[in-house]
Amino acid sequence: MSFRKLTTLKKKDKSKKSTSSVPYAHDPDLAYDRTRNNLIEGLKVAKAVGEASSLLAPMKAVCELGILFLETTKAVDENTSSLKQLQQRVSSHIEILQDGLKSLPSGTRGPAAITEFRHAQQEYIAGLNAIRDRLNDMLLRRGSGSVRSILGKIGDARIDPGIIASIKEDIFHQSRIFAEATKRPMIDLQEEVWKMASLGPEQARPMGTQHKLCLPGTRLSVLGEIRDWATSDDSEKPVFWLCDIGGTGKSTVAFTLCHEWDATDQLIITRFFFSKNARSTSETDIVCTTLGKDLGAKDDTIRKYVKEAFEQDEQLGTRPLAYQFSKLVEASIQLTAKRVIFVIDAIDECRADMRRDLLALIVKRLPTLPNLRILLTSRPEPDIMTLLQGMAIVRSMQYELQGRDNQANVEDIRIYVENHFTGLLTRSERQQLVDKANGLFIWVATARLELEQVDGPDARVRTLTSLISRGEGGDINHLYARILRRLSQETSLDKVKKIIGTISILLEPVSIRVLSKLISIDPDDLEPIISSMRSVLRAENVVEFLHPTFHEYLHSSRNEELRVDAGVYHSDVARTALEVLQADLRQDVCNISIPDHRYPDNNDVSDLEGRLNALWTHSPALLYSARYWSAHVIAGISREEVMVHLGSFLRNSMLYFIELLSLIGKLVWIKNFEDVRRCLRTYTAYQEERELCREILCVVSTNRPFIERSALHIYSSSLYLLPRKSKLYARYHERFKHALPKVLYDQEVTIPSYLELVEQDTRISCGVFSPDGTCVVSGSENGSIRLWDSVAGAAIGVPLRCGKFSVQTVCFSSDGTMVASCSDYEARSGSIMHIWDAFRGVQVGQPMIAADLTTLKISFTTECDRLLAAGYKPDNLVDNHEINLWSTTGCHLSCATVGSFDVDLNRYMDYYKASLVSVTANTKRVVYGLQSDRIAIFDVVTEKRLQDLVVFSPGEESIRGVASSANGDLIAATHYNRSQSEFVVSVWMAATGDCILHFTMRSPFHIAFLTFTANDTKIIHMIGGEYVVLDIATAQLVWGNLRHYRMQNLDVSQTDFRALARSFSGTSLLWDCDPNGEQDVSQTGLGSIQCMCISDSKLWFATCTYPGELQVWDAFDGRRIGRPMPGNTLVTFMDISPDDAQIAAGSCFGDIKIWDRITATMIGEVNVSVTPGLWGLRFSLDGETIVARSIPDHSSREMLLYELTRRSGTWVAKAAGVMREDTSEDNIWITVTTERPIMDHTRSTLVYKDGYISDSRRPRLHFGLSSGIEILQWLSYDDKIALRCDDGWSRWLDFTNIVMSP
Q1: DSSP β-bridge partners for residue 886
Q2: Three-class secondary structure of residue 631 per DSSP
């Protein structure tokens, strides 16, 4: 806000003043309330900004103090308080405001909105000063003159309330002007909160604010040449590359130009300053986010676009680099006609592989952005030189910023020395420094800081003599060696090594308090040591190296004074970080639980932010440790002391750590455990540590909805069903068992080796990995698709609706930016395909409809501009196989018929049809398995069918699935040999048809789904619920058990050995099938429970498992009673007679068997031949009759009734009539169930509802079940509950002795 606008606002506001002597006398609180509300709104904005950067914390403090001041001022009652009291409060407030004004950022360290805020605060102080002068004058007049003797006796006496009311109105008036004047800049700062985070000294600074401007009169030639290039119309050289050795001032030049260009409206400037001081500024993860938002800082259209882009895709900042560049940078530039300049400084400090990708991407996209200019600075690294040197679009300036041969450079250094040393050194001494610098700016800048370290002229002369008398001119390494020698003489060498070595390996700069904790040196001892290092360290809010050349020197062979072994310091930080996590974390670390209440949701906790801030204050190194512990552990994992601390952390504090991640909304950091687990693969001695890492990943993945919503559920919902043979159970159950139910029965004995992806209201039908392996896209039976994080198993975003019918197949584009889906066009017929922006969830182009084509596979072409659909047109006699190509905009391009085959695919189950088609990764060939005797190969480029592979004699075998290697050189198939009753896996050379592998095996399950691994050396295929990794060269097998009945739709990541398959129950399992890694070979044990019941006496509990085994249990303690009884197949209902003597079990086929409970012998068997199956079974009250009913008929809704009676010791059955589903007429079923009601729970307050087990008597009892588990049946009695689940497992829990205290 300009000064003119502020003055106008004052006049406008004054014109609204009441003409009465006491404004607002009719409502004395009106002015206060209006002003206070405005300040509160401003405080909300300032709070967000202030938390993004402590640099702006004074703004937050001003608003907070403003409200406090108004509160206390309002309390100055007109009838009870004095002028002196009011004057003291105004004076105190002014003093605080003036101190706060000094703390506000100034100069070039922030946007214009900060200047506006500063100006408004200055005006506010001036207005309050005028009011204070008026109060002082009144007090002076009251204490002097002829009435002094009278007034002196009552110096603090009450005065006319109208006077105080008038002064208070002036205070409110000034505060209201301040609130209105700061509202606009506050909103602007909220829009630029991202930049505030970049400006803050506690953050990595990609905006380059750690650098300084060129001194006036220096670097004139370089600056002038770049200015001319930036404003010229020459579009042939859109890249300016400033290349020179380290320490020559390239970043200072870049920062100076950014400062100049920020001040002009003709250009839009965006920048990224790389730095090795932090991981985020030495990688490309935040480059596009920074560039895009910086572009929006000077263009409202771009700012709105970028804001909307992040609203549409909250994870946009984590997407692949090319995608981010397209959405945040390229699209933003296309919204403006102005010239845009990218400044990318010190790209040599970016990780080598990442900078290559970034430079290649920029060069590739430049032709589409004619209004873009790029200023690059770097050192002459070989990979950068190879890419940029000699390129036609690059204008380069190399090696012109250093060396005494360049007179302009020498003159610049002379100006620098004169500016800093005039009055401190003689002219001769200053010239000696200029000569010694040898044209290298970093040398003279470091020498200046070293000279400023010393006290007194004698010490300065000695230091200067040492600087100019030793080493070659401009040798920065020699200067660093001298500094290290000085430090080792002033301080303990071990301390110096520890401090500098630790700073050199930290992944982001930290404050002195955090550093002191990480290196175990008291802050009071550390601060003076850091101060003595200011010639190589910057120590504002954080401690970091001043220049990367010092970091490089430390780790180079030239460093003989202080050898830095990075592994040692990584190991030290790893140990300290793990100690911090163990010492400072505990259950309910923020004290959010309330006695006798359920665990609160994180969002419902009052002042959670304040509680966390208190935690950071108490443990300053906790946040750094939580984020980076795994990186330091991995770097020092070969050291025994690190493994000791890691083991202790995993065994004792892992759950506390998960609670913290939930509270701060960073469950994504759970990936750190996966990084450690993979690193531990080669260390056989640490199997338990590896298992604990794997198990916690699975537990968090399975219970993620509970843990994200309520952090404390990690101690309840996540623990009570831990398999009893798991490592987590062994380490943590004893500690928390007082608050957990006793598990009377649970079939799972270990934690599965997979992550399970579960949709809430539907079943998953298909899924594939993204090209980089970081994501999975799944299709569901309700016609939706969804993205998942492939490491954490967490859903990303919301499902995207593709239609109302099941999704049959999905795929990613080769760059990972698009996803395609294919659903049924009508129920079980036709196809409709959609293309989506993979991350924004926006549909690309129009839907593609093939009403008469059953599509089996879809795939993007390598160029990502077309979509291939392979399928067939069903016919009564033959199936015509077709390949269709569509543009990504939805236009049909071509159709090619592969051929007509005498194969009846309709008799093949739907989920196996897709296994007969495979598309190569480059989308150049499609492979069809014809089921009869051959494999067809179709060339997509020529649209011709190539020579078929005749793989065996007709009639001998039947193809069940095919796969092709990434480049199409190898083709694999699984087929069934009828004559030998065995499955065969074969591999052929596509070009010659030579068979290079023929492997046979026997299996009761179909082998249909198979695929090549990423390196094409192995084949993975599914056999029921097991997977097999088959080495093509050696024909060796590795088996793994997924503990699921049947698996379908197999896919393998192209970056590692992870696999993805759909389970028969409609979830997706994601697991590591590396044959060199750990395999899960645990068995299903007791089988899946199909039915369960409890006796009327509540003494006995009975279950029946697939394929038909009855078992009786003690209902009190869960003990198995007697031997298992072989029962019916597919039992649907069971009952125990009222006298506990008999058990009856009925199957879906109408078989009813009766057993003696005590002897476990069968005493009766009846078949009622009911169709379509039994839907109820019940003993009469005397136990002499059993009534049964059938499943209702779909049309008539009628059920058949049967009566079983015992005659001469033999059970016989007879028809007992018919009943309608909704009838109330008397019949034998109603008679028996009225006398002996069927109840799910008997005199128990335990209930299962909406995914939770709860108890109305104990409000705190609240245990969730994984969202992937559907409860088919539940029974409760006393304080026990039994649940039969759709995943095949059942849980039987006793809550009798649970202690619900926190």
Answers
A1: 867, 892
A2: helix
Q: Is residue 634 classed exposed, middle or buried when 0-12, 13-18 and 19+ CB atoms within 10 A define those classes?
A: middle
133 to 124, 127, 129, 140: CA distances (angstroms): 14, 10, 6, 10
Burial of 559 (0-12, 13-18, 19+ CB in 10 A): middle
Q: Is the dihedral of CA 822, 826, 828, 831 positive or negative?
A: negative
CB 844 within 8 A of CB 818: yes
Give the tens place of pLDDT for each residue, 11-57: 334 343 333 333 333 444 555 555 555 555 555 555 444 444 444 55
Sole residue written with tokens 């249990």: 1113
CB-based contact 810:796 (threshold 8 Å): no
Do 519 and 572 touch, CB atoms closer than 8 A?
yes
644 contact partners, CB below 8 Å, separation of at least 6: none
Residue with token string 């709104």? 41
Q: Which amino acid is at 379?
A: R
Structural contact between residues 929 and 962, judged by C-beta atoms closer than 8 angstroms: yes
Quick check: 1067 pLDDT over 90? no
Most confidently predicted of 662-676, 734-748, 1113-1127: 662-676
Beta strand spans in 774-887 (E): 775-780, 784-789, 795-801, 807-812, 818-826, 829-837, 843-850, 854-860, 866-873, 879-887
The two three-digit tokens of residue 140, written as one number:
């002076």
**Cis before 1107? omega within 30:** yes
Which token pair is 57? Answer: 């914390």
Contact 978, 971 (CB under 8 A): no
CA distance 254 to 242: 9
What is the per-residue pLDDT across 841-869, written as a single tens digit (0 to 9) for each?
888 889 999 888 888 899 998 888 899 99
Q: Which residues contact 956 (CB under 8 A, 6 or more apart)?
A: 933, 977, 978, 979
For residues 199 and 205, is the Cβ–Cβ distance under 8 A? yes
Locate all alpha helices (DSSP H) within 896-1005, ordered by sequence: 910-913
**In the predicted structure, residue 269 carries a pLDDT above the cut 50:** yes
List own/partner pairs for 279-284 with CB under 8 A and 24 or more apart.
Answer: 279/204, 279/507, 279/508, 280/204, 280/206, 280/508, 281/204, 281/205, 281/206, 281/349, 282/349, 282/350, 282/351, 283/350, 283/351, 283/354, 284/321, 284/350, 284/351, 284/354, 284/355, 284/357, 284/358
Tell me what the mean pLDDT of segment 726-753 comes to. 80
DSSP summary character for residue 325: I
Q: Tell me the C-alpha distance between 546 and 452, whole Å.
A: 15
Q: Kindly state the helix (H) or strand (E) to which residue 1214 belongs, with its residue range.
A: strand 1210-1220
Report the first-to-last Cα separation within the chain, whole angstroms.
53
In sequence order, the β-bridge partners of residue 779 are: 766, 785
Stretch 1266-1290: mean pLDDT, rounded? 77
Closest of 809, 817, 836 to residue 890, by C-alpha:
836
Alpha-carbon gap, residue 463 to 453, rounded angstroms: 10
Estimate the share of the chain in helix, then strand, then coil, as percent rounded to the nearest 5: 40, 25, 35
User: Measured between alpha carbons, how far is 867 from 886 in angstroms, rounded to an integer?
Assistant: 5
Percent of the chain with pLDDT over 90: 24
